[in-house]
Amino acid sequence: MSTTVYFATNRALTGPLEQWQSYTTSIVAPSHPNEIIYGTAIVSDCNLTTDEFGSITEIRNIQKGRFRQDAIDDLSNPGRNLLVFIHGFCNSFENGVARAAFNREWFAQSGLAEADTTLVAFSWPSLGRVITLPFLVANYRQDQTMAGQSGTHLMSFFANLEPIITSVRAKGRRVFLLAHSMGNWALQAAVESWFAHGNGNASLFDEAFLVAADEIYTTFDFGPFGRLSALDHLAKRISIYFSEADVIMKLGSGVNDGQKRLGQDGPHNRFDTNRFPPWQYRMVDCAGFRDYALDLQSSHQYYRRSPGVRDDIARTMSNLA
């Protein structure tokens, strides 16, 4: 089985564009969004049963600054819903793209047609190293810095997607955003950057899925345009998935001086329906799902380990939740 992943990345290059090994852990200049690389990757051998992500077998259709016209044409008329994915920490370029491909196949396996999507991934320059002692704090901080510095690039990526999204919607399809773990730290920087650059409200996403978000739990309190407080101006609805059983979230809180994470127990004042009206925000507590083998790593990956969580996301994509 092979999966097509349209991608953009703000990783600096050290070699040929067509080789995934060229995509480094350094970042392109924040003031140069035209240095963002857009392309198409083919990922083979994703195995949903054994939780193996597969590997990149080909990179093609590469261009800086925007997708090539043939990719734009494909994305503008995909025949399916569109899923935009932002990976979390500890992902090399190949890891991030391959995990995006795994996610596409995992959600499609739900059997709901609306969850069988065309995929676009954004890869920010995570170190791609396992977060273990004695380097946990240093590696984590490095990834967090890179995610935060990716805000302008991610904003530019969203701007390039906007006309594509308009075309997709005109054909009766929906558009989803899925940000996992520290990808939410990059997302909050992008949302801030979007409005700081004078961009107005935009109906980019029908649903934004914030999963195991390694972002501060008060992120929606920084109104009107700070952190994720204005995400509701870019997404019609926001689904927040969290779990007190998520060990990585507890580690993230510890590294951040005890500051609670959005992915632990949801946002600050999450029961306030005036601040979080149910028609616009979904709160999904995943701590009770036990339909997968629970360990340190899987506790943070429940969205692609738990069939129950997967089916909840797929039903939401299908307007059934």
Structural features, described:
The protein is of the alpha/beta class. It has one domain (2-317): Rossmann fold (3-Layer(aba) Sandwich), CATH 3.40.50. Helix content is 30%, strand content 21%. The chain has 8 helices and 11 strands. It has a 9-stranded mixed β-sheet with strand order 5-4-1-7-6-8-9-10-11, sandwiched between helices. A two-stranded antiparallel ribbon has the order 2-3. Strand 8, helix 5 (183-196) and strand 9 form a beta-alpha-beta unit. Helix 3 packs parallel to helix 5 and helix 4 (151-170) packs across helix 5 (183-196). The longest helix has 20 residues, at 151-170. It starts with a strand and ends with a helix.
Tell me what the CATH architecture is.
3-Layer(aba) Sandwich
Helix content: 25-40%
What name does CATH use for the topology?
A: Rossmann fold
Number of domains: 1
Looking at how many chains there are and whether they match, the oligomeric state comes to: single chain
Biggest beta sheet summary: 9 strands, mixed
Radius of gyration: 18 Å
What's the number of extended β-strand segments? 11
Element pattern in H and E? EEEEEHEHEHHEHEEHHEH
Distance between the first and last residues' Cα: 30 Å
Count of helical stretches: 8
Strand order of the largest sheet: 5-4-1-7-6-8-9-10-11
Q: Which structural category fits the helices and strands? A: alpha/beta
Mean pLDDT: 94
Shape: globular
Strand content bin? 15-25%
CATH class reads: Alpha Beta
Low confidence ranges:
none
